[in-house]
Design goal:
Number of domains of chain A: 1
Shape of chain B: globular
Number of strands of chain A: 0
Distance between the termini of chain A: 49 Å
Number of helices of chain B: 9
Number of strands of chain B: 0
Radius of gyration of chain B: 20 Å
Largest interface: A-B, 56 and 65 residues
Strand content of chain B: under 5%
Shape of chain A: globular
Structural class of chain B: mainly alpha
Oligomer: heterodimer
């Protein structure tokens, strides 16, 4: 079983690192920083959905974003799409669940991530 | 030669990547070096979760009989089943794609459709090891609110997926297997 899983995982890692080269963290922070507004929210959702950044890289990015003055909604939608939606991993997901199911799952999670981003932003905005 | 290639076709990307990376370092091609840095970062993440994942999957496979899974998180299981899969997911580590093999195992053991997708949702967003890191970087308030908001949403997705797949043929395949069954 280990060997069966290793190869698709390695392929995913290669793909992730190539995509990360084209969308490096400092560019992400540049576009999602303070006053990025609706556009920032959309970019966060989109970038988060496409890429898959390991947790111990994405959390420092998120913390940096908040320090720069990005809104909680932007950070929450970014983190949630990163975790729940994976365009890069879609080919692998299709192998397990089939095309229709994999795409439906990602689409539903994308919508859920948008809601999570907005609600978390709203609640934390009220609290602070 | 041809036989060799068809036999090892799965490794073509890994091999190509290895060759290009070595070339990048020899020729001093910077993009190649940068890509290799993020590759190793992701690799570290994978290497830290994969053994753990396989221990869990292995023990689960051997120790937990199918009847018990079906009874607790199978088709007719209610809130308790949901709580159980969420708990199971929270105890694990790793990125979303690490959950697919587990989803396959759960499916094979007779878990209900709803619970398989709730498992994926909980696995992706509220794993305890990840929450620990999240609290460290973003604070307890952010993590708590995000978790509490996410929970009902991915449970809802479980119900929606169940409804969507109700009259369809649904199966989880072993995606790691080279030869797939008819798709």
């Amino acid at each position: 079983m280990f060997r069966n899983v290793l190869l698709p995982f390695l392929n995913i890692l290669i793909l992730i690192s190539v995509v990360l080269y084209f969308i490096p963290p400092n560019v992400i922070s540049q576009y999602l920083g303070a006053k990025s507004g609706v556009l920032g929210f959309a970019i966060a959702a989109l970038v988060g959905s496409i890429t898959l950044i390991p947790g111990f890289i994405s959390y420092p990015i998120a913390a940096g974003l908040i320090q720069q003055g990005a809104s909680y909604a932007v950070v929450a939608v970014f983190m949630t799409t990163l975790m729940m939606v994976g365009m890069i991993t879609l080919p692998l997901e299709i192998k397990y669940f089939g095309k229709a199911v994999a795409i439906t799952r990602n689409a539903m999670n994308f919508v859920a991530a948008l809601i999570i981003g907005l609600v978390v932003g709203l609640i934390l905005g009220l609290l602070s | 030669m041809k036989k060799f290639f068809s036999k090892h076709r799965g490794y073509i990307w890994v091999a190509a990547y290895a060759v290009l990376t070595v070339l990048s370092f020899v020729l001093g091609f910077n993009p190649g070096k940068t890509i290799f840095t993020s590759f190793t970062q992701s690799l570290v993440e994978m290497v830290t979760f994969v053994p753990f994942l396989f221990i869990i999957v292995g023990l689960f496979d051997v120790w937990v009989p199918k009847e018990r899974i079906q009874k607790h998180i199978g088709r007719g299981s209610g809130i308790k089943g949901i709580a159980l899969v969420v708990l199971l997911a929270m105890l694990q580590a790793g990125p979303l794609y690490g959950a697919f093999p587990v989803a396959y195992l759960l499916y094979r053991k007779g878990a209900g459709i709803r619970n398989i997708f709730i498992y994926l949702g909980a696995f992706s967003s509220i794993k305890i090891p990840m929450l620990g890191i999240e609290i460290g970087y973003l604070g307890i308030e952010f993590s708590l609110v995000r978790t509490l908001v996410s929970l009902p949403l991915f449970i809802g997705i479980g119900y929606l997926m169940e409804r969507y797949l109700k009259n369809r043929h649904f199966e989880v395949r072993d995606g790691g297997q080279k030869k797939e069954a008819s798709s």
